[in-house]
Design goal:
The protein is α+β, with helices and mostly antiparallel strands. The protein is built from 19 helices and 31 strands.
Length: 652
């Protein structure tokens, strides 16, 4: 019912210089470890942009964990049917496909590969999947496993009719002794062992049958765990049964919000966005022989007890996706929090941008808002929240030995009351985010009865005020001597700001909008500044980056002034109107944004979708609500749908 509205190709028509989502058409179960996607091509220097939705060709079906092209992939390989001339490389093996016959859904892939005249089908499980392969010509045929990243090892096990393989491939991660182990068990006596052979970073399994079925299992721990996942999740089930199980898993998730839409297109966009919200973060824990959760620890390469989730950046997802989880995925959310606590225990810091290991590619520790939001909405328990609060206190006071851990500039923030611009880039965002994080600490401490620290962190949460320049009405970088940076231009991107200018980044004080009003000289003057923001043409200067970045290009393509809704710093801006009493203006801008910038098509997003964050923005906006600040009530505006139910309960 709901699955039929999902287009997994929404937002996939993107390139490095311009994002319509920068998404992949991922076939996977909700939040599962294993994802699959067609690979159409790879371009040197742009290897993460490996899928083009209109390409009439394919290099193979890729097992992938890539959360974003800016982060890259790890633990990946390609599967490609071949005959005639068999190649070890994706570029040598690529084939034309019949686009009109290609099926890509959350629970099923079907591709007709013309070169080998074969039909490849796949349906996913949590830790792998099932494949069906039909060669339509009667000739010697292979299923090739091709390397993508890193080094690969393979061996055939004749007794099990299985291929065993492993790869250490990773992009930005520094995970210690990482390997992804994979096992492919072929059903029946179909493998021609004498003709199967290993190539250069590739293995070619030859068949003596034209119709093949196989089961895939993966693990970050061992071959044994990968094999166990096959026995647990696939053994005894037919391909059609597994496909039906996948469809039901997605129906269960998508049906958590029921909408009475304005039209079918709105319904397609809504449920395609809801599908995106349940792709990440990925499960990274596994189930051992005793039924206990265990996981590979990237810090030391050891196997440790407990759950783990990865592939999410909190600078993006804290604003919308996790607040949505508090409404519709409470059990999953609580398990994620336990996983984040495990990361703190193992790494010494709560995660910031985690992809197998801590990447730290974006500033600040907005996981603070995620944790407070969970406590405010009673997702979890006091023991869990107290453990997480300890992690929040640690990164709020202790500098990480590496830049990727904790709050950048924390020592200077404590010394000066702000992060100095002569010592750190993005100093304004670092200061504003730290102020918000301190407010989250104070609020969580109060909820937990640890009021001995509440007043200290509530006072720290006012630190943003030291960067406000009343002369121009913007937050500005300030040096260690207390002087604002010379040569200020509100349209100049970078330097003191993250992926934007002073226009996009000066109003992120969600915890103290009343205090922000006072800085401006009253509510009416802040409202006037918001009007000016929307009225100012989308001019940008590349000064801080030295070149154009795609977020600049995207902002300038749409008629919303300096509100760059294509990126997270602007997500809350139209909702400030509603908070300040001008709901009609919020409804005007949000309504236009949803209707003009979002669709279920391949160009369906106004910028990077970012692991469910932009999709969740659309869902909240369509439902007429927005999580402006963790630990507070949702801001309400007029919904864009006729009616809605959340978990079966009518909300309007």
């Amino acid at each position: 019912m709901y699955l039929s509205y999902v287009n997994i190709k929404m937002g996939t028509d993107s390139v490095m210089r311009y994002s319509n989502g920068n998404t992949l058409p991922l076939t996977q179960l909700p939040l599962a470890m294993a994802s699959f996607c067609p690979q159409t091509e790879t371009v040197q220097g742009q290897e993460s942009w490996f899928y083009k939705p209109g390409a009439p060709y394919c290099e193979g079906i890729r097992l992938t964990h890539q959360p974003s092209p800016w982060i890259g992939d790890y633990g990946t390989f390609l599967m490609m049917p071949q005959n005639d001339i068999v190649s070890d490389t994706a570029s040598g093996a690529y084939s034309g496909i019949k686009l009109k016959d290609t099926v890509l859904t959350p629970s099923y892939i079907k591709i007709h590969l013309l070169r080998s005249n074969s039909v490849f089908e796949l349906t996913p499980t949590e830790y792998g999947g099932a494949i069906k392969l039909s060669f339509l010509n009667n000739q010697k045929s292979y299923l090739s496993f091709l390397g993508v990243k890193g080094e690969y090892t393979y061996f055939l096990n004749k007794e099990e009719n299985a291929l065993y393989g492993a790869t250490n491939g990773q992009t930005q991660s520094k995970a210690k002794d990482f390997k992804m182990y994979f096992v492919i068990k072929f059903l029946g006596d179909v493998v021609d062992f004498d003709s199967s052979y290993q190539g250069n970073n590739a293995f070619h399994v030859c068949f003596k049958s034209q119709s093949i079925e196989a089961h895939i299992g993966i693990s970050y721990i061992s071959y044994q765990m990968a094999s166990q996942s096959i026995d647990r999740d696939l053994k005894g089930s037919s391909f059609q049964e597994l496909k039906a199980n996948g469809e039901q898993a997605w129906e269960n998730v998508l049906s958590r919000i029921e909408i009475e839409a304005e039209d079918e297109e709105q319904k397609k966009t809504f449920y395609s966005c809801l599908y995106r919200c349940f792709l990440f973060p990925h499960k990274a824990h596994e189930i051992d022989e005793s039924g206990e959760y265990v996981h590979y620890c990237a810090r030391d390469g050891l196997t440790r007890k407990g759950v783990l989730y990865t592939d999410t950046g909190f600078w993006d997802t804290a604003r919308t996706q996790f607040p949505l989880f508090s409404l519709i995925a409470r059990e999953e959310y609580e398990e994620m929090l336990q996983g984040f606590l495990n990361i703190y225990k193992e790494n010494g810091y709560l995660p910031r941008w985690h992809s197998l290991d801590e990447i730290g590619c974006m500033p600040s520790t907005l996981i603070d808002a995620v944790i407070l939001d969970s406590a405010y909405n009673e997702v979890g328990n006091k023991e869990l929240w107290n453990g997480l609060l300890d992690g929040m206190l640690h990164h709020a006071n202790v500098k990480g030995q590496e830049k990727r851990y904790g709050r950048n500039g924390v020592e200077e923030y404590l010394k000066y009351g702000y992060v100095p611009c002569d010592l750190y880039k993005e100093s304004v965002n670092l200061t504003l985010d730290a102020s918000y994080g301190d407010w989250c600490i104070a609020s969580l401490a109060k909820l937990l009865g640890r009021e001995n620290i509440t007043s200290e962190y509530m006072a720290r949460s006012k630190s943003y005020q030291s960067l406000f320049d009343k002369e121009c009405g913007f937050m500005r970088g300030k040096d260690t001597k207390g002087n604002f940076r010379d040569g200020f231009d509100p349209c100049m991107w970078g330097i003191d700001y993250t992926e934007g200018s002073a226009w996009q980044n000066s109003h992120f004080v969600p915890h103290d909008i009343e205090g922000l009003c006072q800085l401006y000289g009253g509510k009416e003057k802040l409202l006037a500044k918001l009007d000016e923001l929307f009225d100012t043409p989308p001019v940008y200067r590349v000064h801080g980056y030295g070149q154009e970045i795609h977020e600049m290009t995207e902002m300038a393509q749409v008629p919303f002034g300096q509100c760059a809704i294509s990126n997270q710093p602007s997500f809350h801006i139209p909702y400030l109107y509603a908070y300040l009493g001008q709901t009609d203006k919020a409804e005007y801008w949000v309504g236009r944004m949803c209707k003009e910038l979002f669709s279920a098509e391949t160009d369906g997003y106004p910028g990077d979708e970012d692991n469910g964050s932009m999709s969740a923005w659309y869902i909240f906006s369509t439902l007429g609500m927005y999580p402006l600040c963790a630990g507070k009530e949702l801001v309400k505006i007029k919904p864009l749908v006729k009616g809605a139910k959340i978990l079966g309960k009518k909300i309007f």
